Amino acid sequence: MIQSSELILNPDGSVYHLNLKPENIAHDIIFVGDQNRVEKITQFFDSIEFSTQKREFKTQTGIFKGKRITVMSTGIGPDNIDIVINELDALVNIDLETRKPKENLTSLNIIRIGTSGSLQADIPVDSFVLSKFGLGLDNMLRSYLIDEVSNLEMEDAFVKHTNWDLKKGKPYVIACSEKLEKVIESDKMHKGITATAGGFYGPQGRVLRLNIQDEALNSKMDNFKYGDNQITNLEMETAAIYGLSALLGHNALSLNAIIANRASGTFSEDPYKAVDELIAYTLDKLAKQ
Q1: How far apart are CA 33 and CA 31, in angstroms?
Q2: Which positions ≥6 away from 206 have C-beta within 8 Å?
Q3: Cα distance between residue 144 and residue 159, in whole Å
Q4: What's the average model confidence in pLDDT over 34-39?
Q5: DSSP letters for 94-151
Q6: What whole-number distance in Å separates Cα of residue 265 and Cα of residue 200?
Q7: What sections of the chain are H helices per DSSP?
Q8: What pLDDT was estimated at residue 213?
Q9: How distant is the alpha carbon of residue 287 from its chain centre?
Q10: Where is the Nucleoside phosphorylase domain (predicted)?
């Protein structure tokens, strides 16, 4: 039995942070970071059956072309992903009344739709990136036992290439769901490694008034390659989503509309159009699944 201090429920029986009960969610879930982006997706739904918000976690569940889908905002960062995925898993794989894990476990399909800047000149603005791997620079996942789901060889290659300071913790690498990759992929998708940072400023190489540990890290990441894979973009959620999903038996995939290209110094003339096109593409693929 899982103690009340470990799995916290609200007085109405919903999970603590997300304010959700099992019947409120579909098994196909789309993550967005910004709560205001939830309705940019659900505006395409035929109907919405449920909507709630607590803190930055906004959730809507409805029907799109006969497919039941949940859209949820996670907020920013790996720490929020730790909350969201653990509580989603509790909704489907723990009996909230007996507080015991279920014998028959459910696998959720989780797709993140985000925006990002490309690190590579050959990935132009307004294109889409599918994260074949998540490279975690954040250390959150190291609280769990991850060796069975991580790519140890790629981790070691990245540490060596960047001369990574292990006082910051060892980076981790987790692959996307092959199942969802087959559902979503197309010729429009660039594939590669998405790096996940634990912060927006120093962890991503930005300097305001504080010096950072490795001023050359971004340029070293730009030219890191492992096999056919290079680091395509840098953000704050993908690796954590991949890691927790793999550990808990869920399928996860991260997609980004590229609205800036750091290598060429360009920015999309219409970033909202790029995001809308990625949303429409993803919804259509999910509906046909």
Answers
A1: 7
A2: 200
A3: 20
A4: 95
A5: EETTTTEE-SS----EEEEEEEEEESSTTS-TT-EEEEEEEEE-S-GGGGS--TTTB-
A6: 19
A7: 38-42, 78-93, 152-162, 178-184, 217-222, 238-248, 271-287
A8: 96
A9: 20
A10: 29-266
pLDDT classification of 111: cutoffs 50, 70, 90:
very high
Contact 196, 204 (CB under 8 A): no
Residue 271: per-residue pLDDT: 83
Say if residue 212 is exposed, middle or buried (CB neighbours under 10 Å; 0-12, 13-18, 19+). Answer: middle
Q: What phi and psi, each to the nearest 5 degrees, are found at residue 155?
A: -60, -50
Least confident of 127-136, 198-207, 243-252: 198-207
**Which tokens is 63 given?**
């029907």
How far CA 107 is from CA of 88, 93, 112, 179, 212, in Å, comes to 11, 9, 16, 12, 40
For range 114-119, the mean pLDDT: 86
